[in-house]
Amino acid sequence: MKILAIDTSNYTLGIALIDDDRVIGEYITNIKKNHSIRVMPAIETLMKDCDMISSDLDKIVVAEGPGSYTGVRIGVTIAKTLAWTLNIPLAGVSSLAVVAASAGHYFDGIISPLFDARRGQIYTGLYKYDNGRLIVDKQDHLLLAKDWVAALKVRQERVLFVGNDLPIHDAVIKEALGDQAVLAKLTEQNPRPAELAFLGRDKEPVDIHSFVPNYIRLAEAESKWLEANKGKND
Amino acid sequence: MGEFIMDKHQFIMGIETSCDETAVAIVKNGREVVANVVASQIESHKRFGGVVPEIASRHHVEQMTIVLEEALNEADIEMKDISAVAVTEGPGLVGALLVGVNAAKAISFAHGIPLVGVHHIAGHIYANRLVTEMVFPAMSLVVSGGHTELVYMKEHGHFEVIGETRDDAAGEAYDKVARTLHLPYPGGPHIDRLAHEGEPSIKLPRAWLEDGSYDFSFSGLKSAVINTVHNTEQRGESIRPEDLAASFQDSVIDVLVTKTVNAVKEYKVKQLLLAGGVAANKGLRSALEEAFNENKEIELVIPPLNLCTDNAAMIAAAGAIMFNKGVRSDLALNANPGLDIAIHNNI
Ligand SMILES: [Zn+2]
User: Fold this and answer.
1) Residue in B48, B95, B98 closest to A221 by CB
2) Phi, psi at residue B140, to the nearest 5°?
3) What region holds the Gcp-like domain (chain A) (predicted)?
4) Which residues sit with Cβ closer than 5 angstroms to ligand 1, an ion?
5) pLDDT digits (tens, 9 = 90+) for B103-155
6) ipTM attached to this prediction
7) A17, A15, A60, A67: which is closest to A38 by C-alpha?
8) Which of A5, A10, B109, B317 can pair with A197 through a Cys bridge, CB separation 3.0 to 4.6 Å?
């Protein structure tokens, strides 16, 4: 089974091709460059280099967020359209789960992948490996980094932090958790698209038409409107 | 076109997501609409009193593949029958445009179908070719929520903007005046309706600008309307909204029609093509019909309402011309919110 995996949810642009248990190709960059211009050419190049054409594909896997709204939408739009038009299954995987899987395979403890969400906030969740399978301990959510580390301190477990945005929050993490916190090494911070592909391989396909990114947050106008209209319909 | 094989039909798919409509259409041989699907988000944006870009982008992702599938079903053809995918690359809301552009690129890659990036206004103008064959030289009056332009075309696929708004677009002025009169969003059709029930009895300015200029300006008129409402309220008087709407509409249409008539004469065109969402305005339609009624040398073309508002058939129609002229976009095609219509020239 040949799978194309696409991750454009953050600065990292990741494309992978796997065939059953083999990673055939991976493309990763971690630069502030326009995903919209680069994703399709990257897919085209990688597939060409791997001697594959679109009709060889059996499944599409996409990182569904959280992350940059625009970034996630680019990947999800391409993935949905490819899966629909090639008439093959589509699976979505949490962008944070991919980060956790990219560094946490051999970690004995809980894994907190994170993306910076500005103003001291982070997108994060809790994951751990159980018999080689990545399982969710706490769903992805958005909160202040300082509130997150305070909650983790209570658990008294060793926590592996992963993500390219760690330098923004490592002071807060270290201060609250000390030796309880382990920071992933530099080469493991990028979400690996091959990990995304394998996580998606084992997931149930979604309904392509109704599949949407997991933004976590409502659009700002929407939450303001809900706030302003609270109780009006009661 | 001598070697063009006529027994093989050409189907162009159009994709349009520049604002708040997710649209896919299929046009046969450049002129015949065989599918025209538009998923409007207007109900969702109404509560905000205008289009919210982030929400528009989210809706596009929800609708994109559904609308694509509906269009293929409506046309009763398959992807392999499509000769090219034409997509709006700009101008418009960048996040919204990105959804259409990336969907188009995915289709192009998946099936090896050529891709053609189309300027949104070129699309609006080419809605006219779905009504009648275009004859050159032609002039197009483009009036929409974001545009007020006079575009001269010496031939297919060549666009020269000879006049444009220096501030608000006509549609924008309509929406702002509608808000002043507490009319629901979108305000344009409400003003048009009220105007027909009122008398243009209130004196409002007309911005002619310099002699011979084909540019427009509507911000002064908009301010005059707001001031009129304000002043009468302060005097404790009331104003008939119908009369104010009629006076406002009269001023807008007077400027639009007069400048258009002048441009058409100076450039000696054979056709005047009305384009854009405001072309749905009954007042504008009848004023143009009246102005061009006596002039039999110039054909006035006004597309039906569903081809005036944003749709993808117009993008496919413009895309067909570009495609047949050899225009191709590659997979690095990007959304360009400030795209110049001259991208289509020099081909
Ligand atoms: Zn438009």
Assistant:
1) B48
2) -120, 130
3) 27-225
4) B 144, 310
5) 999 999 999 999 999 999 999 999 999 999 999 999 999 998 889 999 999 99
6) 0.96
7) A15
8) A5
